[in-house]
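Troubleshooting log. The previous structure file for this entry was overwritten by mistake, so regenerating from the original sequence record. Sequence copied from the archived sheet and checked twice against the printout by T.R.
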Amino acid sequence: MTYCEFVNNLAEDDNNPNKDYHNNHYGFPITDDNELFERLVLEINQAGLSWLTILKKQSNFKKAYDNFDIITVANYTDKDIERLLNDTGIIRNKLKINAAIHNAKVIVELQKEFGSFKNWIDTNHPKTKEEWVKLFKKTFKFTGGEIVNEFLMSTGYLVGAHDHDCPIHKKVLEFTPAWNKKS
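Regenerated output below.
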């Protein structure tokens, strides 16, 4: 079952956060670096867990990671790591926490070189999924194939977020995702 089918099969009165995510966020292009960083951190934290778990904890993540302000997270200290490891509102996995901090530091460097994290992604677009995975693994921590695929699909860089007959697919196209831009 595709994500679109799953969401469309939820009961009308089901307050599942997947509905909002599917209808208003998944596959839509993101231009703000902090939002891109947020999506990357959430995708990393989803590894081994359900996306519903991450969506239910998203506001906790936002608070714990200072609204995903890249510069702030890049400057986290051991005290911040300890705080995050003790925060029951997020996923308390040291490897994932360390990856978020490391990746924030990398993004700061990419911003210096390319002007923004988004510009770095745009400079490397288009690539195949395999090429993206190789680049992300070389650049970031905790970025395996599924994490990279979902990050890029969910932010409009790889096709496949929505079924072609899904009404949201047409809405996404209105925002000209990178995968649908003419060279």
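The first helix runs from residue 3 to 8. Archived copy saved in two places this time.
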